Amino acid sequence: MKISHIYTAGILAAMALMAGACSDVTEPVLQKPDPQTFTLNIPPLQDQYYQLSENGTFEIVANGQPSYGFSAITSYRAQVSLTEDFADFRTLTPTGTGTLSRMTLKDADLAVALCELHGVTDESNYEDKGIQKVYFRGQAFISGIEETEVLTSNVVSLNKVQGYFALKLPKYIFCIGNYLTDWIGPEAANAEKLIPYRVTEKDDEIDSNIFHATIDFQENAPIFRFYMGLDGWDRPADFPESQFFSLGAAGGTNSDTPVEFPDFKAGEQLTHKLAETKDSFSFPNCSGVIEMTIDLSNHDDPVAHFTAK
Fold first, then answer.
1. Which of 83, 158, 202, 253 is 20 to 30 A distant from 275 in Cα terms?
2. For residues 289 and 219, is the Cβ–Cβ distance under 8 A?
3. 11-38 pLDDT, tens per residue?
4. Are 153 and 184 in a shared domain?
5. Are residues 244 and 302 in the same domain?
6. Do residues 252 and 274 make contact, with C-beta atoms less than 8 angstroms apart?
7. Full-prediction pTM beyond 0.70?
């Protein structure tokens, strides 16, 4: 019996010690990182001539995760500026998961950022700045926790960067028709005249291949088709077969004969397939303004949507 009591007492004592030890274990506490714990390494290419290219990449490397008080999955970004004080900057997202302190960045993204920082809005106001000094700082954060964001305490640079015009602008096609007394041919010499008749991607739908416009046919009964560029009326012999050249109304005879839609009038909507044909859309009982969406996102099934205003 005495042995049993001693054994029980020993177990109770051990449990008490374990409980005391557990009470000393604390949950990790998130700390606001000290920027001094987060720096960028000097890029090996710092003083080398670096020509940006469409498919190229380069690295900006941080010294590791900033101190949050515990190990956490950390996301990394690089901020780029033309001035060391970062009065104006753009943020570059690394390739991959974005959770590596060794950041692999795309040349194309840097080229776009440089264009934007120089105030370039389109190719007409682009100016080759030659070799530029470009500044970088690192950004780290734990996704979803705003107060974890921290910037590197130092700034590094690439001192001899050669950029290029890289802005992604909305694409457009041309509505060619009888909106004036005479049709304006899809030719380069008519580019300025055809600006009001471009059908354009939205700014937030770049590369969607969905084009929008509202065309005023000035009280003519509209007749029109679409051209992808200004290379003339007929597809050149060397034009790639995989690309659209012009698109008209599917279902015609492909003999440059308009396909008529007599029921399309003010307030009506029409969805119709497009085809590589010279057969134009013809709306004999509609005059004035047509709102249109040309959907080329599915190359095998191009579709036009029209609303008569």
1. 202
2. no
3. 344 444 444 444 455 667 788 888 998 9
4. no
5. yes
6. no
7. no
